[in-house]
Amino acid sequence: MNSFQREDGDGFVVCLGGHRHWGRFGAAGLLLTDPERGVLLQRRAWWTHHGSTWALPGGALRSGETPWQAATREAEEETAIPAHAVRPIASSVVDHGNWSYTTVLATVRHTVSERVTNAESEELRWVAPEQVVDFPLHKDFAKAWPELHDQLGRELVLVVDGANVVGTRPDGWWRDRAGAAAGLRDRLAGLVRAGVPGEEFDMDGAWSWWPRVVLVVEGQARHVEPTEQVEVVSAPRDGDSAIVEAVRALRADRPDDHVAVVTADRALRGRVTTEGASILGPATLLNRLDAV
């Protein structure tokens, strides 16, 4: 936030618990991780609310702004790290009734250069996650840190059984199987951009996710191309085996990720749960795609 220009979200709010918080429409912070350097902490200027403590870049939401937009905007204003260099993974909300704070967990897309850019910060520092508790933290950040630490770097990965999901609705998909698969891919890209509430996908309702999506296609749909948002696995013969192999590879490479397979195939469900994946029904995914 530019300290010399008052925005429509600026101002203090007294929450239902009687505590004073900054941000008329709530506030958001960016918990940014660099696999090589740790997490980015900001030491707040002495004159700010809870000054001289360490917390996250962030600030008040403006009217009509999402927490992701606010967190990346504020981070760019305070650290010079542009929004396009950051990939969101998950978010968590602390709700005080008439005021809320959203922490957005994200990772860098490439190496970034940070610098203090306004008077609200005294210092920026990359800190190893296990050393965060050694700093004099903002009291609310200190309270939230254990749960945030547990989720650092963890992603929600959706492995989508393309043929099974497309075949769920009798909308004429069989006349153009490749076109139907490409349409599903494009709708999944919208889901990646919009994110999903955890409770809708049978996960912890305190979290929302910007998922990584792996679409598995077969038969006449095998030549569907991947996009920036959606990975595509083309199964030369057996789509179910390709899904099992994809799950196995994901679990081996990143064992802490949440991997969910979207399919209604009972036999396949048994095979992937053995590999450590959870299951989502096609209707759950399609309903969310309709909402997006």
Task: Give the topology, please.
Layout: E1 12-14, E2 20-22, E3 27-34, E4 38-44, E5 54-55, E6 58-60, H1 67-79, E7 86-95, E8 100-108, E9 121-127, H2 139-151, E10 156-161, H3 162-166, H4 177-194, E11 196-197, E12 207-209, E13 212-218, E14 230-235, H5 239-253, E15 258-262, H6 266-274, E16 278-280, H7 282-291
Parallel strand pairs: 3-8, 10-13, 10-15, 13-14, 15-16
Antiparallel strand pairs: 1-2, 3-4, 3-6, 4-5, 4-9, 7-8, 7-12, 11-12
Written overview of the protein:
The chain has 292 residues and is an alpha/beta fold. It has 2 domains: 12-151, Nucleoside Triphosphate Pyrophosphohydrolase (Alpha-Beta Complex); 156-291, 3-Layer(aba) Sandwich (Rossmann fold), CATH 3.40.50. Helices cover 28% and strands 29% of the residues. The protein has helices at residues 67-79, 139-151, 162-166, 177-194, 239-253, 266-274, 282-291; strands at 12-14, 20-22, 27-34, 38-44, 54-55, 58-60, 86-95, 100-108, 121-127, 156-161, 196-197, 207-209, 212-218, 230-235, 258-262, 278-280. Strands 3, 4, 5, 6, 7, 8, 9, 11 and 12 form a 9-stranded mixed sheet that branches. Helix 6 (266-274) links the parallel strand 15 (258-262) and strand 16 (278-280). The chain is elongated and about 65 Å long. The model has no long low-confidence stretch (mean pLDDT 90). Residues 23-149 form the Nudix hydrolase domain. It comes from Amycolatopsis acididurans. Its cofactor is Mg(2+).
